Amino acid sequence: MMLYVGTIILGHAQLEVTLDQPSQTGVSGSTLTFTGTIQNTGTSTVFLNGDSLAVTDAATDDSAYLAGAPESLDPGQTYSGTLFTASLASTALPGSYTGFFSIAGGGDGDTFTSLSSSPVSISVAALQATVTLSNLTTTYDGTPQTVTATTTPSGLEVDMTYNGSSTPPTEAGSYVVVGAVADPTYQGIVTGTLVIAQASQNIILPALTILSYAHSPLTLYETATSGLPLSFSLVSGPATVSGTNNNILTFLGTGTLTLQASQAGNNDYLPATSVNQTFLVASSASFNTWETQFPTLTDTGAAATPQNDGVPNLLKYLYDINPSAPMSATDRTALPVVDIDTITHPGTEYLTLTYRQYALETGITVNVQTSPDLQTWTTVAVATMPNPTILEAGVSIVQKGTDSTTGDPIIQAQVPVTSAKQFIRLNVTQP
After folding, report:
1. Is the same domain home to 62 and 15?
2. Residues 48, 114: contact at Cβ < 8 Å?
3. Which domain holds residue 74?
4. What is the pLDDT of residues 326-338, one digit of tens each?
5. Are 172 and 198 spatial neighbours (Cβ–Cβ below 8 Å)?
C-alpha cells in the first residue's frame, strides 16, 4: 500500500492528510475510490470548509467527503473515510493520468484557503480481450494459407504473424502463429501453430498402347497431377531409358514394352503411387489391330460412330483418336483445319488442310480432294506418307511437325486456289 501524507500548518494548527492509495490502476469506464485520513495534529481547531479536486480524463466526485467529513477538527481529532471518487471516461486510453486533491478551510467557517494539495496518479490499463485462432490445419494448394482470428469482444483488429512474418505462408510445413490485438483500448495475444500438410498427387498416363518403332527415340513429357515431372524406369521390353528422369525412350526392336512411372514428391507434395504401363512397339498397326487396344469399344467397324459425334472409327484411326471415349479438346486439335496460306508461296493463294496422321496407319487410302460446288470432287493427291502421290500441278503434301503428345506427324495439304469458290476435304477409304 502506498501512503501520501500532506501536512498543513496554519497558525497553531497542524493538519495532516493521508491518502491510503494515491496511485491506483483502473480501466476505461471504471470508477476508482480514494480513501484517506485527515488529522489535526496541532493545538488549535481547523475548520474543513471544502476541497479542490481534478484528475485528467476522469470525472471526479467529492460528495462523500463533503457529506461525511466533520465541520472542523479539534486538536488530536481525525476523520477517516472516502475523500473522493474518479470515474474514468469510456474513451480513456491506456496510460498514466495525474491530478490533485486539496483541502480548503481555515481558522473559522468562512475561510476557504487551500491548506494542502495531495498529488493523485491513475494508471489506465488496457481492457483484456480474448483472441481465438481457427483454420490452423490445411493442405498445400499453391496459395497463401491464412489463419482466422476472432475476438471477444467481437470485431477487434488482430495483427497476425507467421514465424515472425506478416506474410501468410504458402509452402507445406509448420509455422508459429501469433495473433495480437491491435486496438488502443484492448490488449490480448494468443499463440498457435499452423500446419500446412503436403498435398497428394496422382499419375495419369495417356491411353496409348501402340507405339511406332519409327518414333524412336521418344521423349516423354508426362507430369503428375501436381505438375511435377515423372521419372521412368524400364520394367521389361526392347528399349532403353536415358536423359533427365529417364524420360528419353529408345526402342531396340519391336515387341511388348513395360515402363514404370513414378514421382517422388517434394516439400509440398507426397510421393505418388507408381504406375506401370505396357505398350506394343510396332512397325505398323492395321485398323483392326488399332481397334483392339480399346477393350471397352463395343461399336466397331470403319463406319461406326460409337460416340455419336459424326466422326467414324476409320477417321479416328487416321487421326489417332480414342474411339471409346468422348473427344477431348486435345483430340479435336487432330481434326482437319482448313485455312488460306498467302505466305509460304508469295503471290499465290493456297487452300490448306492440316491434320494429325497416325504414324502406324497402314492399309487405308487418304485422298485429298477439291470441289468448286461440293458436288463434283477431284482427287488432287494421295497423302500416303512419307511418299505422297501428287496428281495435280502445284499441290504439295508436307509434314509440318510432330504432335507432342502422341508423336504422330502433323500433315498439311497445300492446293493452289484456282477459282472463286473452292472446297477441300479428305477422302479416307479402306480396301
Report:
1. yes
2. no
3. 4-125
4. 988 888 888 889 9
5. yes
